[in-house]
Amino acid sequence: MTTAAPERAATAPAPGTAPAPPGTRRLAVGGRSLLLDRRALVAGSVLAALVVLTVAVSLAIGTASIPLGRTLPAMFGVGESRDVLLVQRLRLPRVVAGLAVGAALGIAGVLLQTLARNRLATPDTVGLNDGATAFAVASVVAVPATIAPSAFALVGSATAAALALGLAGGAGQRGYRFLVVGLGVGATLGAITQLMLARAPIDEANRAFPWTVGSLNARAPGAVAALAICVAVTLPLAVLLARQLRLLRLADPVVIALGQRVSRIRLAVIAVAVVTAGLAVATAGPLGLVALLAPEIARKASGPRVVPVLGAALAGALVVLLADLLGRTVAAPIELPAGIVTAVIGGPYLLWLLLTTRTRRMP
Questions:
Q1: Is 141 strand, coil or helix?
Q2: What CATH number did the domain enclosing 277 receive?
Q3: DSSP-assigned states of every residue in 308-337
Q4: What is the pLDDT of residues 253-304, one digit of tens each?
Q5: Is 26 a domain residue?
Q6: In degrees rounded to 5, what are phi and psi of residue 26?
Q7: What residues are paired with 127 via a beta bridge?
Q8: What angle do CA 126, 309, 23 make, to 5 degrees?
Q9: Residue 223 sits in which domain range?
Q10: What local confidence, expressed as pLDDT, does residue 101 receive?
């Protein structure tokens, strides 16, 4: 009897510390603690493992295959010169681009969906991608001076967001109106893009055409590096915003009573979404429906209790890498752009989502 008391004391929670709610795990860091959702942790681990596996397969498979055991040494310049050339010069750059682009689109998608309380609110549907594409094409065919398309694409994404929010009167309580207005803004900007391509000389139109079809082939290293830095900065910010986004599911007066500034939260969320989506399009062009698929995959895996920002980033990277891998291998030696593959995969899902009335709004 005397030995049982110390054991109970050892397993009991520390004085002043409430036990973790069911389904969560408490992580103590210094004098503070953080609650982590167990299902979200498991889902994130599985998605991360799938991303690593897809990276390995993408580096190994192509018109000339490499055994998986030789891909890792080839990444560091060790092994046969043929393996090093294929991995370092040809496949690794597009894998890095796919990771950055997919993560950026996943982050932007989950933030916009949660903010607008509508699963259809993504950079594709609210006009951000169309704005970035239109401005990138304009920098090639309509601007006399030589301006980097990536910089113009970021301006286009911000312009589309400003138009959609201004005409809709904001997001939040008017999420459905924000979506409908965004569709109109995107359609208008898409028509302007097609008009510019139709009226441009054939050589300029050919140079601008890759910006209308998403692809990871021969991406500019500078644009990929800028996007990778952007993801590294915005991902922690998005994770911090996720906790406040959960509060925005409540009515605005309730959120204000809890001491939160609703307008500041919405502005920060929109800024992160605009920057990540704009730089993603500036890097690889419009990869359709990735920002719709990635949050849905993460949400199904993580459950409804969290805003799965990290899961959406991992799922976005996974979708883009798989789309690029399929585009390179299914019709080899002909290469299908990753944007076409994602549209073929995501199109039927989008149609199903539109026809399913109960999924029109976020839970």
A1: helix
A2: 1.10.3470.10
A3: -HHHHHHHHHHHHHHHHHHHHHTTTTSPPP
A4: 666 666 677 778 888 888 898 889 888 988 888 888 899 899 999 988 888 8
A5: no
A6: -90, 125
A7: none
A8: 135
A9: 43-359
A10: 95
In the chain, which residues have pLDDT < 70?
Answer: 1-36, 144-147, 170-176, 248-259, 356-363
SS3 at position 146 = coil
Question: How many C-beta atoms lie closer than 10 Å to residue 258's C-beta?
Answer: 10
Helix (H, G, I), strand (E, B) or coil at 18: coil
Q: What is the pTM of this model?
A: 0.84
Q: How many domains does the chain have?
A: 1
At 248 the pLDDT is 67
Phi and psi at residue 335, in whole multiples of 5°?
A: -105, 125
Whole-number percent of the chain with pLDDT over 70: 81
Phi, psi of 37, rounded to the nearest 5 degrees: -75, 125
Of 268, 279, 266, which is closest to residue 231 (Cα–Cα)? 279
Nearest to 87 by CA among 60, 114, 52, 113: 60
Residue 192 backbone class (left: φ over 0; alpha: ψ -120 to 50; beta: rest)? alpha
- Do residues 258 and 247 touch, judged by C-beta distance below 8 A? yes
